[in-house]
Amino acid sequence: MKKITAIISLLLLAVLFVGLVLVNNQLLSQVRVDLTENQVYSLSEGSKSVLEDIDEPLTLYFFYSDSASKGMTSLRNYADRVKSLLQEYEQAADGMIKLEVIDPEPFSEAEDQATQFGLTGATVGPIGEAIYFGLAGTNALDDQFTIAFFDPQKEQFLEYDISKLIYQLSDPEEVKLALVTDLPVTGGQNPMTGQFTPPMVFFDQLSQLYDVEVVESNADALPEHTDVVMLAHPGKLTEKLRYAIDQFAMNEGRVLAFVDPHYESAPMSMMGSMGANSSTLTLLQSWGINADLQKVVLDARLGLDIRAQDGGIVTHPGILGLTAQELNRQDVTTANLESINGASFGTLSLVQGSQLRQESLFTSSADARLISAEMYSQNMDPAALQKELDGATQSYVLAARFTGRATSAYSGPVAEATAFSSNTSKISVIVVADVDMLADRFWVQQSNFFGETVYTPFANNGDFITNATENLAGSNALISVRSRGTFVRPFERVQELELKAQARYREHEEKLQTELADTEAQLSQLQSHPGQSGALVVSAEQQAAIDDFVAKRVAIRKQLREVRYQLERDIDALGNWLKFVNIAAAPLLLVILLFGLSRLFRRKAGAVYTGVRS
Amino acid sequence: MNVWLIAKREFSSFFSTPVAYVFIAIFLMLSSIFTFFVGNFYERGQADLLPFFNFHPWLYLFLVPAIAMRSWAEERRSGSIELLMTLPVSIWEAVIGKFFAAWAVLGLALVLTFPLWLTVTYLGKPDHGIIVAAYLGSWLMAGAFLAISMCMSAMTKNQVIAFILAVVICFLFVMSGTAVVLDAFRYWAATLTIDTVASFSFLTHYDAMAKGVLALNDVTYFLLVIFIWLYAGLIIVEQKKAH
């Protein structure tokens, strides 16, 4: 009887177990603690609000060649991380996102699908198997956006990239960019030469990506449904346009401004007779941004070489080539850029009492100083500017992102205008204190390829303009998604050893290589001049010398091999030592220690034992 | 209180025989050997303990049944169970006490792997949060293995049979998320059934924790397994007592 009760109890217990596991799976998976250092498995607030704005269900296809990437540890680790993050999105989206994980094996239908989506396959292995590692997304309207390949180099922007894709899917309308400028961006006739010039390359690029409308400074309003306003050295704005831009900033808040103490790429300025061609944009000042357009930055380290009037090459301290070091590595707009060229940069700072937050995007080197823009514009000789560099010991902010709270330049609505916003808490402005960087000659090379004009960029100016526009075009939530820490954690100790060993090896190798070359030269000399008498017979001494050199050569070669072997030795030695400690020494030591401790406590334990029994 | 006393008695009895020492020594050595030689810890050059934690389910699969097989089987074979039953302790106190004692031994073994943690900290900058989460996950999983093994030990007087039964059942639990087990269901069962079977897998729940994310459902899953199998063990001990 008892046995039957027991069996029934066990059966009931089994049913209870299955039931509880089911409930557990359904209900408790939402609560989680992310213990990782940079919260790599959690979504930031920005991404969460991007997810909240999804109105129609989206499908994400995560393509990852799981089977083809066997043994590629770091890529697999990264893929794991991407997958977890995508699952996090799926979970946080409350059913609005459906995630499909696909392993596109070679020659499978899934692989064709991956290619159709436009994903990039990286070829590996001897037979050239393609590894896919990308994301494609579709929405209810069949719009498609993709991340062609998750580049491990761009890991810190992984969340931004995925959130951007989701944002694009949930709001697939084309971005409308109002470009407020009087520059000849669309091309036209050069007033000096009468020649027809093509559109500026940056404008061409933007037009391919967005719906760009040029607004001249004498216009009265911004186009409807503008998403981003880009100001590029506009002339004096009409009062209505100025008001419209101010109100746009107070409501939508996304402005990209290029201002300059001296726009020297204008045809008239190039003549050098006009004085400083500086931008006037008083709006920035009212919003809390101080763009100093009276002075120009001269940099002792970043000056680019230009051709002087006498034909020689001279370094111009006002024409700067910013390198990766001067570009913010943490901001999504500049993190992957290598260089930015520009001329006569101004400087940026916050107006006193401004409630904005400033994050610099471009900075000068620490060896810079300011001179007056007027003086700079009069001075056509770089050598004279070089002399001004004395006492150049400061670093300046040349471009920055401003976010936060700003107040309107107006105290009330202008005339017939009705709606008026006096301030905003979510303004997002990127200001670059240079307009020359937009000019073609600073970043693209024009060449002719079978009758077609081809532009080859030699600096990342165009990428920056696109990045900044794209970043500002996203929702505020998306803009707030910033870079995260990286996932790769190399053995720094081993890398250090490697570097040290390599340095030592190179030094040693160089010495031995020269010795070897010497020996070989002497040897060949001896062999080609058998004897002074001209006889073909080699004297005994000569033979001995030759033998000597041959032996020496063998010895040097052996030494070289030895050095090469040594390179690995230190690293292997450390590895072996660690293996020994962890596998043998530490376990034995710890167990012996444990044994000792337990003997110490044995008596006490015995007392407990008898205590229970009694 | 009785639970505490029994746990203490059991714990010290582990250390009065060579069982605990042998277990800990083997666990430490094997885990290091797997980490370095099979997991290529040093060659892969990443400052994390993934190769170490990856092998824990497989180590536990054999080592935990080995340490648990004697817990009830031995008492029944030697007859000391009669003595235990006459003491003023309830059976559930005995079950839980024995479990906690063995779980503490497993915890101690885990703690003693700290040289590896030091090693990885020496070599690079590991994410300590992930390591802490993985240790917690590993210990919870060890508890699940232990509860199953103790239940099997209660079923028979023969330690070898207890060991084999425990290994088989633990193996099923480890593998239930993989094709080996899922293929048996794939062609006839509904998705929900397959998902549920897959969610029985120790590996799935453990992997999630070893990555650094402690999800409530992963933690409760292991606690559930521990509770259910201890309860089953209790029923079996109770039933066998009648004989």
UniProtKB/TrEMBL annotation, chain A:
Domain ABC-type uncharacterised transport system: 184-468
Keyword Coiled coil: yes
InterPro entries linked to this entry: ABC_transp_unknown, DUF7088
Superkingdom of this protein's organism: Bacteria
Keywords assigned: Coiled coil, Membrane, Transmembrane, Transmembrane helix
Keyword DNA-binding part of the UniProt annotation: no
Residues passing through the membrane, by range: 577-597
Coiled-coil stretches: 502-529
Every DUF7088 domain range: 37-137
Protein name per the record: ABC transporter
Organism: Alteromonas pelagimontana
Automatic annotation (TrEMBL), chain B:
Major localization listed first in the record, in broad terms: membrane
Subcellular localization, as worded in the UniProt entry: Cell membrane
Keyword set, alphabetical order: Cell membrane, Membrane, Transmembrane, Transmembrane helix
Residue stretches spanning the membrane: 20-42, 54-73, 94-118, 130-148, 160-182, 219-237
Pfam family, one: ABC2_membrane_2
GO MF entry, a single one: ABC-type transporter activity
The keyword Cell membrane is annotated on this UniProt entry: yes
Presence of keyword Iron-sulfur: no
Gene Ontology CC, one term: plasma membrane
InterPro entries: ABC-2_transporter_component
Protein topology in the membrane: Multi-pass membrane protein
Highest taxon above the source species: Bacteria
Protein name: ABC transporter permease subunit
Organism: Alteromonas pelagimontana
Lineage: Bacteria, Pseudomonadati, Pseudomonadota, Gammaproteobacteria, Alteromonadales
